[in-house]
Amino acid sequence: MEEMAVAGTVPSTDSNRTGMKSLAVQILTGRWLMVFAAILVMFAAASATSMFGLYSNALKSSLGYDQTTLNLLGFFKDLGANVGVISGLINEVTPPWVVLSMGAAMNLFGYLMIWLAVSGKIAKPHVWQMCLYICIGSNSQAFATTGALVTCVKNFPENRGAVLGILKGYQGALTGAIITQMYHAFYGDDAVALILFVAWLPAAISLGFLPAIRIMKVGQRRNELKVFYNFLYISLGLAGFLMIIIIVQKKFGFTQSQYGGSLAGVLFLLFLPLALVVKEEFELWKMNKQEWLNGHSQLNIITEKLNTENTDEIDASSPPPSPPPISAPATNSRNQKGNSWLTNVFRPPNRGEDYTILQALFSIDMFLLFLATICGVGGTLTAIDNLGQIGTSLGYPTDSLSTFISLMSIWNYLGRVVAGFASEIFLTKYKFPRPLMLALIQLLACAGHLLMAFNVHNALYLAWMIIGFCFGAQWPLLFAIISEIFGLKYYSTLYNFGSVASPIGSYLLNVRVAGYLYDKEAERQMAAAGSHRKHGEELTCIGPECFKLAFLIIAGVTFFGALTTFILVLRTRKFYRTDIYKKFRE
Prior knowledge:
Elements: H1 2-29, H2 31-45, H3 47-50, H4 52-63, H5 67-82, H6 85-93, H7 96-118, H8 127-155, H9 160-187, H10 191-208, H11 224-252, H12 256-271, H13 273-295, H14 298-317, H15 329-337, H16 341-345, H17 357-361, H18 364-385, H19 387-393, H20 398-430, H21 434-454, H22 460-486, H23 491-499, H24 501-528, H25 545-576, H26 582-585
Helix pairs in contact: 1-13, 2-8, 2-9, 2-10, 2-13, 5-8, 5-24, 6-23, 7-8, 7-10, 8-9, 9-11, 9-12, 9-20, 9-22, 11-12, 11-20, 18-22, 18-24, 18-25, 19-20, 20-22, 21-22, 21-25, 22-23, 24-25
């Protein structure tokens, strides 16, 4: 008995020491720190692509490009940012740190080469070389997103709408407004220095959070959605603060030191979710510790030992079990494997089950979703990529371009979080299908394109808000629909395949439509003025006619995309009336 008493006292002392240690381990290895790490990784990864409208004029002037060539660079930027099939396939067979590390290296290389070219430190590259550099650099975003976002969705499958809303809200949406503050605080108006900044920042953040982002097999806690709402409230506070700062900066004008003061507030709100992480992990640690103490009392240990001894005695007196009979299903399984894979490709499972990659790619649902994304995202992305040239052609000053980018970024963020959270609420409470919400968003985007086309007086700010909101709202809806219809087993690859639609739409609408029509109007203006463009000279268009016809075409294409999405709504209406999350609760 004395021996047992000593054994009962020693663990209590050790458990206190272990508890102090395990709290730090709990925070560093918990799921909520992983969510915060994913937020920062995705925020930083989109910095270069979201700021293209701000440094595109530096590219155009220093390298002597016309608008078609600049839009070609914009296309390769979008191509790299959205074609992540390779990163998805790599992520299927490797842990997330692999794609995150590869993305960091690609970002640093691609944008460092662009900075060297624009700053004149190397000879002027050929256009194809610049396209390659920006494609490699922007492709790092696909690697970072695959490693961070896909991991979070798999770790929180029942709250994927909230997860996608939060992560996509920070990525590219708040990124533009936050990086703009950093840019003016650190570099003033030096757009060339901005290129170097977006080269090293994402790489440093991705490498710094490599250990935190990983797949975790943890059961759902009751307050998971509540925690995501807390993340949402903090991000809304950050967006509201940015909106106020933008209005004040626009009205009074800020010096570089004043931008530094506003940046301090932005960074405080950006890192405020860390307090939420510590709070949630501390509560989880206390709960786990209490369960451990209750489950490891001395009485339970003795009872388990007695039960083990009795079981051993019964097993010793029982005859040995007979070997299991040899059955023949192995032969049948070989015959099943011998069936044509092509037959299985065109016989997919029910919606919501795990499709194979080929079953998903060859399905009508994926075709409709892909076509709708080409039209919807491609149109809004064209507007965003031409932001600098649109503002210049309509006579807005340079400081207004920064305001446009910040406004577009904030409304981009609002679109992402509203679409993510609202679609989750409407789906779970009212069985409102996500594809229907996607179709309504695309119809709203048509209004923004028409405002842009007709240059309604003082409506350009409203147009940027609508376009930013609609661009942001389409992404969480697209990725949630893919995960719901085709399952999570191959989500890393299918998620990235859905993103491929964006650069296709960007090329068709940005390069072949907007860029071509802009240059055609600019050449007409030069001819009317009696001048001719010299080789390597910048080509600039002034006036509302520069983009009018392009945005009329884009509005029509976006409307066609909304009709395509309505067809998907009709095909999936029965599926969305069911409890699509039921299997995750079984």
